[in-house]
């Protein structure tokens, strides 16, 4: 069987992590292109791709499938470049950009009959960037949005899904406009707010130098995403500028209303506001909800002691229980903290609960 050549253009966190998965697919030859020579060298040294190129045109001519995994503005440029490269075989192109509309607009201007585009966005990431942060498991259980175009067909979509199947993602077909509107609300805009909360704390620190020591669980939870790659997020905000501006205007208006409720002492209305947001937030975690992934969580109290985490994980490993996610919700020096262990099925959750209880751990399962 003839090997298919897959080009990954942009070998950073996402491109490198995809390469590590695509390596698992049989009969695939992976080639890489990146503007950064040291990323290419790292990929060869660590066997992440089979061959590297520092010229996009040269590499793409060899490819059957091309995954554009550079920053969004560069991805748009690379799509435009495709119109000036003479290909002699069919090429299926996809991307991984967090904002879809501009990329899909560029893809609509592709002139060659040989080129077909299907938009893509694996909705998983990390606060780290670059090839050294690439991990094969990055996309496990995450949503992978695919946006077919008028020119693409089912066979090409299936081909792409098969290539990406080792990621263990859940594919979701969305149109680019829907994608950008939804991701603005649940990802891009919260990022802006998280960053603004950090700025607010930093400003107050001038008056209260002790603030960083008080910044425990809640503040860290809500601002965790503010630690992500600033260049990538700047790109996202500007590529999705109109939607961000609209959400900011809505937010300012809502904050104005909240301010009035606080200023005028409307306790009942504030309570109702908090109740409504709690109920909606709790509903998001519900095991019954559709697209939002459901996990079976178990809360375990632990002490801040060396090896505390290892002990819990070790007990479950002895019973061959796989933990999907571990989160330390709140822990300060010397006091009890809470671990949130997430399992993929109820059986593992219940069994873990029984094992940890037997070893005198305080546990909780939320109904
Ligand atoms: N990081 C995330 O959380 C995340 C999640 C989903 C999708 N994405 C999307 O993935 C894409 C890449 O993001 P990342 O997090 O992997 O960033 P990254 O900084 O880790 O990697 C980007 C790579 O692109 C390369 N690059 C930059 N300019 C280039 C050029 N002109 N030609 C070729 N390569 C070039 C860089 O050298 C780097 O290796 C972005 O479009 C982003 O929107 C990111």
UniProtKB/TrEMBL annotation:
One of its GO terms (molecular function) is prephenate dehydrogenase (NAD+) activity. The keyword RNA-binding does not apply. One of its GO terms (biological process) is tyrosine biosynthetic process. The keyword Coiled coil applies. Keywords: Amino-acid biosynthesis, Aromatic amino acid biosynthesis, Coiled coil, NAD, Oxidoreductase, Tyrosine biosynthesis. Residues 4-292 form the Prephenate/arogenate dehydrogenase domain. It is an enzyme of class 1 (oxidoreductase). Residues 241-268 form a coiled coil. Residues 297-367 form the ACT domain. It holds the Pfam family PDH_C. Its EC number is 1.3.1.12. PROSITE patterns: ACT, PDH_ADH. It catalyses: prephenate + NAD(+) = 3-(4-hydroxyphenyl)pyruvate + CO2 + NADH. Pathway: Amino-acid biosynthesis; L-tyrosine biosynthesis; (4-hydroxyphenyl)pyruvate from prephenate (NAD(+) route): step 1/1. Belongs to the prephenate/arogenate dehydrogenase family. This is Prephenate dehydrogenase. It comes from Gracilibacillus oryzae.
């Amino acid at each position: 069987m003839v090997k298919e050549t897959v080009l990954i253009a942009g070998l950073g966190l996402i491109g490198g992590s995809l390469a590590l998965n695509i390596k698992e697919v049989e009969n695939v030859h992976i080639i890489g292109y990146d503007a950064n020579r040291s990323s290419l060298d790292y990929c060869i040294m660590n066997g992440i791709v089979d061959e590297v190129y520092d010229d996009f045109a040269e590499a793409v001519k060899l490819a059957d499938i091309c995954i554009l995994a550079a920053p969004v503005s560069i991805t748009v440029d690379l799509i435009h470049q495709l119109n000036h490269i003479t290909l002699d075989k069919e090429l299926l192109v996809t991307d991984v950009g967090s904002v879809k509309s501009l990329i899909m607009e560029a893809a609509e201007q592709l002139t060659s009959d040989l080129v077909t585009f299907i938009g893509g966005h694996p909705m998983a990431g990390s606060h780290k960037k670059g090839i050294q942060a690439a991990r094969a498991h990055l996309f496990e259980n995450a949503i992978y949005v695919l946006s077919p175009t008028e020119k693409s067909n089912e066979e090409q979509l299936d081909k792409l899904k098969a290539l990406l199947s080792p990621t263990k993602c859940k594919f979701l077909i969305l149109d680019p406009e829907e994608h950008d509107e939804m991701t603005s609300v649940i990802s891009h805009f919260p990022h802006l707010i998280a960053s603004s909360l950090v700025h607010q704390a930093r400003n107050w620190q001038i008056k209260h130098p002790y603030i960083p020591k008080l910044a425990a669980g809640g503040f860290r939870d809500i601002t965790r995403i503010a630690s992500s790659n600033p260049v990538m997020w700047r790109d996202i905000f500007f590529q999705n500028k109109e939607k961000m501006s609209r959400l900011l205007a809505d937010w300012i208006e809502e904050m104005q209303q909240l301010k009035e409720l606080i200023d005028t002492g409307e306790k009942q209305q504030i309570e109702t506001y908090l109740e409504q947001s709690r109920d909606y937030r709790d509903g998001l975690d519900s095991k019954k909800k559709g697209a939002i992934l459901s996990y079976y969580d178990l809360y375990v109290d632990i002490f801040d002691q060396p090896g505390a985490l290892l002990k819990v994980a070790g007990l479950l490993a002895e019973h061959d229980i796989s933990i999907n996610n571990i989160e330390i919700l709140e822990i300060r020096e010397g006091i009890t903290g809470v671990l949130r262990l997430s399992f993929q099925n109820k059986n593992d959750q219940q069994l873990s609960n029984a094992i940890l209880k037997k070893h005198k751990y305080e546990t909780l399962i939320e109904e």
